[in-house]
Each structure stands twice: as C-alpha cells, then as structure tokens.
Amino acid sequence: MAETPVPPVMPAAPPLWRRIWLPVLVFALLAIVPLIWGERFILGLVTRAMIMAIAALSLDLILGYGALVSFGHAAFLGIGAYAVAILFTHDIVDASIAFPVAILAGALFALVTGAISLKTRGVYFIMITLAFGQMALFTATSLSAYGGDDGLRMFHRSEVFGSRLLANDTTFYFVVLGTLLACFLLLKAIVASRFGRVLRGAKENERRMRALGFDPFLYRLAAYVLAGAICALAGALFANLGMFVAPAYMTWQRSGEFIAMVVLGGMGTLIGPIIGGIGVTLVEEWLAQITQHWKVIFGPMVILVAIFARGGIVKLLTRGDR
Amino acid sequence: MSSTLLIIQTLNGLQLGVLLFLIAAGLTLVFGVMDFINLAHGVQYMLGAYLAAMFVPLTGSFVLGLILALATALLVGLVLEVVVMRHLYDRDHLEQVLATFGLILFLNEGVKIIWGAAPLQVPMPQALSGTIRIADGVLYPVWRLAIIGSGLAVAVGLWLVVTKTRVGMLIRAGATNAPMVSALGIDIRRLFMIVFGFGAMLAGFAGAMAAPVLSVEPGMGDNLLILAFVVIVIGGIGSIRGAFVGALLVGLVDTLLRSFSVDLLRLGGLSPSDARTIGPAIASMSIYILMAAVLFFRPTGLFPAKG
Questions:
Q1: A296 sits in which H/E element
Q2: For A109-117, what is the mean pLDDT?
Q3: Which of the four pLDDT bands, split at 50, 70 and 90, describes residue A321?
Q4: For a surface tag, which of A87, A155, B125, B171 has the fewest beta carbons within 10 Å of its beta carbon?
Q5: Cα–Cα distance for residue pair B163/A282, rounded to 1 Å
C-alpha cells in the first residue's frame, strides 16, 4: 500500500467543532458526573471507562496516525498493572515509585517488541504483535510467585507520598480524569508537531518520506514506545481501580476490544477513541444489565459499525462540517 | 524422558498438527485468495464440534451425524459469506478484523444460548473407541489415530484438488494475483464464495473429529484460531503446502515442549524448582518464538504463495 503514489492533497484541518468544542464537551461532561451521580457503582464504572479511554487513546497514536494495527495492545495494560501489583507485594506502595516503574516497564517492552515487529508490514505486523501479546499473557500466567492464573490482590490503593489519597473514590475519579486530559493534550501536541507530521507522512507515502531523508522506522518506533508507556500508565490506574490484577487483563480479546473502541470512536482523531473507549465500556455494562448474553447484541453492533460507520462516531457527529 | 512417552507425545503432536492443518487450510486460502483476515474461522471449528454434539446422538450414528454436521457447517459458512464477509473484501484489514471480531462475540454467545455454557461430550463410534498396541507396552487410542489418518487423507485430497483440478488452478492463480484472474473473465466472487464455504466446512470437520476427545464448550476455537494464524504465517500466506508443514511443525513443537521442557531445562543445568517454574512458560511461548524467528529470517514465511 505504501508504494502507491498518493496525490499531494493537503488534508483540511478538522472543523473547529471537532477540534475544540467536542473535547470541551466530553471533558465537561466527565467532570460533572460525580456531582450528579455520587453512587459508588456509577463512579467506579465511569472511572473504568476513562481508564479504557486512556488505553484506546494510546492505541490511536499508532493505529490512527501510523496505520499500525497492533493486536497485542492489551499486553501493555497488563504490564502496567502487574508492575504496580508486584511492587505492592514487595511493600513498595507509593505511586511516586510504582507509576514511573509501570510506565518504564511498558516503554521497555514496547522498545524491544517494537524494534522487531516494525520490521514487518501489514498482516504480518498484526500477527507478530499478537504473538508478543500472547507471550506476555503466558508469562503472567507462569508467575506462580505472583498468583499465576489466579491473579494478584492489593490490599489498598497506591499511596501518594505516604498518604492514602487515592482510597477516596471521588478523588481517584478526578485523578483518572486528570490523567486522561493530560494524555489527550500531550498526544494532541505531539500529533501536531513535526514528529507527528513525519509519522502521518510515513503512513501516507513511505517512499516519499524516505526521499525527504526521514527514517520512518525510528519515528514509528518512538510512537510505539510512547503508546506502550501511556497504555502501561492506564494499566497502573486499572490495577488501582479494582485493587486486583490477573492475566485476563491481557487476552487478545481485550486487544480486539481496544481496536473496536478506536475504530468506533474514529481513528486518528484522538477525541474519537476517548468517546469510543467510554462508549464501549458503558454500552457493554448497559447490555450486561439487560441480559447475561449481552455479547449476542454487542457482536452484531460491532459488525455493523465495521461495515457501515466508516470514520466512526466523530465522523458521524461532524459530518455536516466538511 | 522415556521413549514410551516420546512416542505418545509425538503422536499427540501429530494429531494437533493435523487438526491445525484442517483449520489453517481454509484460513490460508481465504487469506491468500481474498486478502481477507477472518478471525471468525475459529468459531467455525467450534461450530463443527457443537453440530457433531447435536447430530451424533440425534441420528445414533457417528458417520451420519458427521455428514449432517459438515453439511450444516458448509451452509453456515455460505450464509456468513453472504451476510457479512462479502461486504468487507474491498476494505482495510482493520475493518475485517473488527467485523469478524464482532462475529466471534456473537457466535460464541449464540452457542451458549442454544446449547448452554456447560461442556458437552460426544460419544466416539464404538468400533474406534478402543486402544491399540503400537509398540512394546505402548497403548494408544484408536480414535486419535483415526484423527491423524483422516487429516492426512484430507491433506492428500486437498493437494490433488489444488494441483490437478480447474478449481484448484483458479485458487492458486487467485492466491498469486486475484485481479488478473478476474480480468481473464473468471467470476471471482463465486470463487471466493466456494473457497470460503469449503474452508468453513474443513474447520467444522476438524471440530467434529476433535469433539470426542475434547470437551465441547463455547470459546474452544479462540485459542486454536491464534495457533492457526501462527501456522499460516510460518507456512506462508496462501500456500496449502506451507499450511501443512507449518501445522505439523507447530503441533509437534507445542506438544513436545509442553511435556519435555522441564526435563530439558534440568538437563541444561537449571535447578528442579527453577525448571518447573520456567518450563511451562517457555513451552507456551515456543511457537510464538518460532514464528518470530521465521518472520525474522523469511519475512513472508517458508513457502510464500505470492511470487
């Protein structure tokens, strides 16, 4: 695909509505949720949805802007979660140590696996990322000292410089919301920077980028590492949410769900995957309340989105603007 | 590491390899000819097992039940092609992955609704339910040998169809250059449909044959699907020969390392407790390491179909 010449069309800047007002609306809604619904269940649910949104957001950087279909992204979620929980069992309970370690662990795994995976293209890339995801999963199940198949329990949430700040659900909610916002703004800045333009350029026409003197591999690897680090951060938050980690966090089905979130929301828009991540989590929960067989409804919904909703929710919302 | 165990595990590895080949054959053709990633191929295998679990007790005969199961699996495959797959041939791999992922969710849950979440058992045919002495003191179930035999027979049949018949020629041509085949006046859509339905039936056959030795349960195809993908990536996408070699390789490596990795590590000088911890992890990862190694040295697999 990369070899076909693409006519030099400058992509129009996204409409103001999508660029400014949609994110403002989403984050404003998320900010007032705890004021309207204070119940623990709702808070926990939306917190989980936002953590999934961070993971989907990180996937969008490589999927939406680099056209790299990673089918092993859940591994990073698991690595971040396990880093926090394993440190916890060794009495290192402070977030100021555990979270940076989680992020570094995710970045390191991304650096090693990315350096190998990014040598392949297309469907081989899908398969090799899947393989690395499975390796991470099997490693987790074989960690018998840390729970093996059964997973690992934490007795309380991470401390922040010695205080049990995160134990309060509302505080934790706003910490997750703040992290989501920070990641969104960071990725927005990165995508708009020279780095982001090279990444997108390599997606549109790799040969031309090479001719301009860029090495797409290094840019893709940097993006892959950054995505892995952010997803590991989501994992660290996820471990804290339920105070539990298990190998089930990194199954390939969850990686598939992340892809679904990004595509549903709208690839390469950053705000779309946030909407997709939150939307998918909430819809799953809602359907699960209706019937235990909610996947019979959710599955066809995914199929319909794949066939009909090209560009995802964001495109549908802002269709009139283009 | 006794020689008896080695013989038995080699046969078990062959059996897994043969089942993988039956699944991977359809997958690699669908992939090679249509450039279509079908994640839902694993549920076709599961469906075959469930259909056998339904039809065998219903008809009271394994052969009759198997035939009915295969016919139904073919029908389901064709219906899925018309309802879902057909709309996705011209799309990105991403959309194909997503749609067939949705299909997995739907079919896994649908199976749960129809047959319940509890595992089902399928009785094996009376005549083939015993064990046979294959060497001194080595007994092996006849049915497992029957699985290996039927899988090899299908492999030979498939090889004859693909290399000797007109349809096979079109399939090979399609895997190499589909637009050219279409330009030469072949109804490529119909070819797609045949290949897809036939691939679904082969996966169903694998499921039905495996049903008596496994417990039939929802999601049973999910892990095998991943293995089958590893197989076709190792073998080279679109190549039946590659699928065959890859399937046997993956089946043997996976089975043998699962039973001998601990012993091998101890021979390598690790302490027994370390070997017991690391062994199973290495065994589960072995085929993925194999795949990564093959891709590193031969990025398009062992027997690439596209010239």
A1: helix A295-308
A2: 92
A3: very low
A4: A155
A5: 52
Q: What angle do CA A288, A292, A298 make, to 5 degrees?
A: 55
Question: Which of B79, B83, B109 best tests the A interface by mutation, with the highest count of A CBs <10 A?
Answer: B109
What kind and span of H or E run contains A152? strand A152-153
Q: How far is Cα B286 from Cα A135, in angstroms, rounded to an integer?
A: 9
d(CA A153, CA A149): 12
Packing angle, helices A216-242 and A95-117, rounded to 10: 140
* Residue A319 confidence (pLDDT): 61
- In tens, the pLDDT along B134-174 reads 777 778 888 999 999 999 999 999 889 888 999 888 888 88
Chain B hits for A144, CB-CB cut-off 8 Å, are 277
Name which of B250, B225, B246 is nearest B298 in CA terms.
Answer: B246
Dihedral sign (CA B133, B137, B138, B142): positive
Interval A275-298: pLDDT, tens: 999 999 999 999 999 888 888 998
Beta bridge partners of A160: A163
Q: CB distance B109–A299 less than 8 Å?
A: yes
Interval A98-112 mean pLDDT: 96
A9 pLDDT higher than 60: no
Residue A322 has what pLDDT? 42
A196/A190 Cα distance (integer angstroms) = 6
pTM: 0.86
Burial environment of residue A137 by CB neighbours within 10 A (0 to 12, 13 to 18, 19 or more): buried
Q: What integer is the mean pLDDT of B12-24?
A: 93
Comparing CB atoms, the residue among B109, B288, B292 nearest residue A293 is: B109
What is the residue type of A191?
A: V
Condensed to tens digits (0 to 9), the pLDDT of residues A36-69 reads: 887 888 899 999 999 999 999 999 999 989 889 9
Instruction: Show me where the domains of chain A are located.
Output: 37-250
* ipTM > 0.90 for the complex: no
Give the nearest partner residue to B106 out of A132, A253, A299, using CB atoms: A299
Residues of A with CB below 8 A from B231's CB?
A: none
Closest to A78 (Cα-Cα) out of A191, A219, A244: A244
Distance from CA of B302 to the nearest CA of A (A): 13
Query: CB neighbours (10 Å) of residue A180?
Result: 24
Tell which residue, A171, A197, A181, has the closest CA to residue A274.
A181
Which tokens sit at A142?
A: 């074989």
Residues of chain A positioned with their CB less than 8 A from the CB of B97: 69, 71, 126, 256, 259
Q: How confident is the model at residue B299 (pLDDT cuts 50, 70, 90)?
A: confident
Which two structure tokens, joined as six digits, stand for A35? 């004021």
Cβ(B261)–Cβ(B198) under 8 Å?
no
CA separation for the pair B155, B178 (Å, rounded): 24
Mutate to test the interface with B, among A112, A125, A138, A308 (most CBs of B within 10 A): A138
B contact test, residue of A60, A291, A296, A315 with most B CBs within 10 A: A296
The topology under which CATH files domain B3-297 is: ABC transporter involved in vitamin B12 uptake, BtuC (1.10.3470)
